[in-house]
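Protocol step 4 of 5: obtain the predicted structure for the target chain.
Materials: sequence only (see below). No template structures provided, no constraints applied. The aim of this step is simply to have a reference model before the mutagenesis design in step 5. Sequence pasted as it appears in the construct record:
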Amino acid sequence: MKVLHYLNPFFSQLGGEEKTNMAPMRIEGAVGPGRLFNSLLKEGQIVATVVCGDNYYAENMDKAREEVLTLIRKESPDIFIAGPAFNAGRYGIACGDLSHAVMRELGIPAVTGLYMENPAVDLYRRELYIVSTGRSAAGMRKDAVKMAAVTDKLLRGEEVGLPEEEGLIPMGKRVNIFCKEKAAARAVSMLIAKLKGEEIKSETPIPVYDIITPAPPVKDLSSATIALLTTGGIVPEGNPDHLPAATAKFYKKYSIEKLSRLESGQFESVHAGYDPVYANINPNRVAPLDILRIKEQKGEIKKLYPYLVTTTGNSTSVADATRMGKEIAKELLAAGVDAAIMTST
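Step 4 output (structure tokens):
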């Protein structure tokens, strides 16, 4: 059976950020993690690899999708593997979009691998077999084993098992299965276990969402103190406090009290989730201090909080982001800040 593999330039060992605008290209056989897949697959082998830069795909999605599909059609594969992309957002979006397109346009199965918090998960989980991976390539072999097992099942035409059995991210679909015990007996057993304080597992799990009550709107901006926050990784040149480029666990505050704008050469972006070239040329593109100073001078806002609050949102866990958000909010409230502008990438 013929397997077609999709990778970005980094995992295909063609380069890093300097290749992120690379147009789609075909490579004969398996490269990078594809070699690992070929050692694990029992029912097929990777015959070719298609590579595309993450920025190229994200910024030209319709065009890039068709270019990649054209390369895939020439191979007539039996199945498509994308990634794994772990927690890389742009890469994950490309893997999810292409897998969905391959299934829809070519009528063949597709498998990808993503970390649960990758933004592509919520976009494609209902349509795709997405193997739940670790946050980074540190768990590549373990994740590849799960992806290869699902791929082999699909190539054999076997039914894929439940998410917890296969290591898949649930699609949110309910399926009927046969059990030896009747529903009433199972329900009573669960109730008894719950009364004993034992761990139980619901057969129909209900999603739990955080309920966030929006803050009331600021009635009069001309009398409000506004804070500027960013997850775009804008820091003083040289990154003196070593803010991580990804998976940040802390934030920093830098004085902007005497600044009218963020100057190139004095501030830079250390964010590893986007091409920082344009942010480094003009850091105000990510943290718009220049515009806020104009509004302050015109009296449209009373004053600007004298610090830029910054971190990197790239691959930062929900738990760490929630903790930092609470800490920042506490500081801003104590300083009398009425509202905050949070910019991203």
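Step 4 remarks: The first helix runs from residue 33 to 40. The two ends are 41 Å apart (CA to CA).
Proceed to step 5.
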